[in-house]
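so my prof wants the structure for this chain in the tokens format not the other one, which i didnt know existed until like an hour ago. anyway here's the sequence
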Amino acid sequence: MRITLNGKEQKTTATTVTELLAGMKIDEAQFLAVSRNGAVVRKNEWSATRLAEDDTVDILTIVGGG
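here's what i got, hopefully its the right format
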């Protein structure tokens, strides 16, 4: 299926937010914020949140620096 991920169209076989993050090799233990179609998806809902064709997903991580 096709989704828009952080502003870029992408093909994915992931069916949930958890699968999408795993496929991107993002560790769920990292501090992340995820939104699907403009709505925040809470971490405890990632495995139950199903992705669909043409969804827009934004994933934010914290990057430290000085």
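also thought this was worth mentioning. The longest strand covers residues 56-61.
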